[in-house]
Amino acid sequence: MSQYDGRPAGSKRRVAKKGPTKGSGGKNRRALAGKGPTPKAENRPYHAAYKRKRYREVREKAAQAQAAAKARKAVIKVPEGHELVFGRNSVAEAVAAGIKITRMFVAGGAAKDDRMGQAFRVANAAGAPILQVEREDLDYATDGAVHQGVAIEVPEYEYSKLSDLFEKANQAGGPGLLIALDHVTDPHNLGAVLRSAGAFGANGVLVPTRNSASVNATVWKVSAGALARVPVAREANLVHALKECKKHGYFVVGLDAGGTETTRDLTVADQPLVLVTGSEGAGLSRLVRQTCDVIASIPISAAVESLNAAVATGIAIYDIAQVRAQAKAEAK
Description:
The protein is an alpha/beta fold. The chain is 38% helix and 15% strand. It is built from 11 helices and 11 strands.
């Protein structure tokens, strides 16, 4: 009879292993040590609260930057009825054209530029304050445009009348050349057209009062001062204005890719004419197109679908100027 040892029937008896019990020797002591209190949710990078905290910080930083920008921009306050003309060429051309200066702002080494000498003399003679400012102040006042460290405050641009453009063309002699823009709303394009008009002898630019770019600081800058030499007329109805041009002996030539003539071989190039450019997307509007006497195109590579409105206008003015120069040479 076997002695009962308290284990269930059929179970095996555990036999202790011989030899000393092996330990970690202290190697796991750090793993067993406590890691301190659990970080707050907003300090744990993978927690939603942390992302919300970072978002708040970014917004607060942006708000502070905007507040600082407004404070800096407030250093140069342009009153209603006035605007800034900036950039050394633009300022020099505006001064040469006799535009009244109410204030002048100078930053950095712009005062040492020889081109600014006349501007300083005119400002002094007119009693206009010449203010030394930081470049950052001009950055904010011009919305980050390239101002070259100089700007003048002048009365808002005074538009000419269509009759003024006729008069200017008559005084210049030779056949008149006017540029009309149909729904061209980008001031960069208006400035570039003025620059081309000044370079190739156009007598003025005609724009409608609605749905068109107006003269502003960007136009002054992009025109490189040509705005001071080429007048801009603004009329309420472009179609009526073009019909008025016809009454004064002008041919109306519209620029369009599907033209019946090219600008290089324009049959009326040596006559008084109005060159009409439409917007890049829609082109000439229906009524303006119907008012045109001739639709002319610019020969371009098949790899390019269309040209920028200002680029197309510049090329067309150049082509017309070349045809007129050749006709003048042949007449001698």
